[in-house]
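Sample intake sheet
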Amino acid sequence: MLTTEIQQDTYCDPVTLNPRWLRIPSAVKYSGLSRSRLYELLAQERIKSICLKSYSNAQRGVRLVDRESIDHFMERLRVASTPIN
């Protein structure tokens, strides 16, 4: 899992964080999906993302993928593939 360790201002152990928003390479690594499949799911709005731009008229930005929506998508697949007895 992709995590980030931060040191708090107090005298305790570092805290491990799981970032909510992932850049595309991290989202690919986290999900196990190919880059092209991830972009397909983003286009179908089955996984959520945002694009951060430095200013409103910018041509390009940074695409960030919602980690929780990846988890929800995978969970829906798991539930759908579970056989009913």
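Comment: Residues 4-81 form a domain with the Multidrug-efflux Transporter Regulator; Chain: A; Domain 2 fold (CATH 1.10.1660). Helices lie at 24-31, 35-43, 67-81.
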